[in-house]
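Continuing the series of single-chain predictions for the mutant panel. This is the parent chain; the variants come on the following pages.
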Amino acid sequence: MLKASDTLAGAVGKLAAGNVGAACVLGRIMKDPFGGLMILMDIESIGLRGEAIWRLYRDVHLMKLDSFIQHVKAQAGEARLLGA
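Parent structure:
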């Protein structure tokens, strides 16, 4: 679980869970630090880690970052609605 004390690099490392592909995707997301941080929090909230991030990006969204981000946002929004 991410903590408020995590650095951006630490958060990326935790979410990538040793998967180089996931680390690359998360690194691309972090090119916009504020917006990227929000996406990292969404990724955390839906429980994506390591290989699951890479496979979703590569296989489902065909390596299209914007499509991947929209998917994550939609899933996180749905999770918030179900949790409310």
